[in-house]
Amino acid sequence: xxxxxxxxxxxxxxxxxxxxxxxxxxxxxxxxxxxxxxxxxxxxxxxxxxxxxxxxxxxxxxxxxxxxxxxxxxxxxxxxxxxxxxxxxxxxxxxxxxxxxxxxxxxxxxxxxxxxxxxxxxxxxxxxxxxxxxxxxxxxxxxxxxxxxxxxxxxxxxxxxxxxxxxxxxxxxxxxxxxxxxxxxxxxxxxxxxxxxxxxxxxxxxxxxxxxxxxxxxxxxxxxxxxxxxxxxxxxxxxxxxxxxxxxxxxxxxxxxxxxxxxxx
Length: 265
Known about the structure:
Blueprint: H1 3-20, H2 31-59, H3 72-86, E1 88-89, E2 95-96, H4 98-109, H5 114-126, H6 129-136, H7 140-154, H8 158-167, H9 175-187, H10 189-222, H11 226-264
Antiparallel strand pairs: 1-2
């Protein structure tokens, strides 16, 4: 394996373990708790798609007239990932992006999706993130997470975008969380089947094939440039810290809800 890739994986591992073993998973006990988690996480699913399209825009020609852009093997890598993320299939075989599949999961489980819908519609009409956050009453932890993603997108540095895409977004759903969702699914299959499918599809597609493609893409973009690799490492660590802070926000929200329920009994 590329020694720079191994270096980033090594230095990122402590933060990655904090995410995989985060205390938020241990307090998700029922569908209501899971819905709170989804109401935060859906923003990460959405900005993942934005990060993906930023990479495609930077690494391929997406304008007319068309001209060859970049290395063909890198174009192939990002385009293959885009196909899987932007036009996958749901459990019924209908083509959908992973974001749209996530919204279906929220609808099935009864999670409140009004915030993400308000955010997207306001952003579409104004192009103003602050107005969209305010309209949607987006939690602070989510704002910080999305802001970091878009700071990286707006840097126009494809090697940084690739780094946080590869090391900061893949393979971060722990087995304990998947087992927890499967347990809830056994009791409430009519409410959680779509979310269970989303997680399993994410692992099957993103955590295996796409992760290998993303590693190669990052290696191609950083090449032999030591400053690129150093910046990629720093961006990776920041992205993982933002994920921890996002999960911290979910944890605080869930604890607040549980405290309120307990005091009302």
